[in-house]
């Protein structure tokens, strides 16, 4: 059965171009227009923690392999560390920017914008670069 999709449903002044939809689609349009969060905060926190730990572990593993390799004396371990961690964080920042530019740029709702798995994983990548650099410079 089809129902009418009104301007109010999609939070606009004018009615949408598609005017008859099924119940399921109407609910979907309504929640999308009201920026209903579909990625729970607790899952976001868990994903952030998980991906940060994985990121730091991978970076530390990579950095310890590289700094004990034959390349290290030529380039200098601290330069390799700086390069690898900066590259990681900058890549993460680029991903955060790419995701938030669209989400925040259109909605101006930071909380909703950050409730995205891609944004959370990108932030975790930035964080793991920073944490790995801090660990390396503090202990090695
Ligand atoms: Zn439908």
Could you please describe the fold and organization of this structure?
With 140 residues, the chain is mainly α. It folds into two domains: 2-33, no CATH class; 41-139. It is built from six helices and two strands. The chain has helices at residues 23-33, 41-67, 72-75, 77-107, 110-114, 117-139; strands spanning 2-4, 20-22. Strands 1-2 form a two-stranded antiparallel ribbon. Helix 2 packs antiparallel against helix 4. The longest helix is centred in the middle third of the chain and has 31 residues, at 77-107. The model has no long low-confidence stretch (mean pLDDT 92). The structure holds zinc ion (ZN). The site of zinc ion has 4 residues, from strand 2 and helix 1. Zinc ion binds next to strand 2 and helix 1.
Brief overview:
The protein has 140 residues and is mainly alpha-helical. Helices cover 72% and strands 4% of the residues.
Q: How widely separated are the two ends? A: 67 Å
Helix residue percentage:
over 70%
Number of domains: 2
Count of alpha and pi helical runs: 6
Bound molecules: zinc ion
Main-sheet strand order equals: 1-2
Topology, element by element:
Elements: E1 2-4, E2 20-22, H1 23-33, H2 41-67, H3 72-75, H4 77-107, H5 110-114, H6 117-139
Antiparallel strand pairs: 1-2
Helix pairs in contact: 2-4, 2-6, 4-6
The structure holds zinc ion (ZN).
């Amino acid at each position: 059965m089809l129902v009418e999709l009104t301007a109010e449903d999609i939070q606009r002044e004018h009615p949408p171009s598609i005017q008859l939809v099924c119940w399921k689609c109407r609910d979907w349009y309504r929640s999308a227009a009201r920026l209903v969060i579909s990625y729970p905060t607790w899952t976001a926190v868990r994903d952030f923690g998980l991906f940060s730990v994985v990121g730091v572990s991978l970076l530390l593993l990579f950095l310890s392999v590289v700094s004990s390799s034959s390349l290290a004396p030529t380039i200098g371990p601290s330069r390799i560390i700086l390069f690898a961690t900066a590259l990681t964080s900058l890549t993460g920042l680029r991903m955060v920017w790419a995701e938030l530019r669209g989400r925040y740029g259109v909605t101006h709702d930071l909380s909703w914008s950050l409730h995205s798995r891609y944004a959370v994983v990108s932030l975790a990548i930035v964080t793991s670069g920073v944490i790995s650099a801090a660990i390396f410079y503090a202990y090695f």
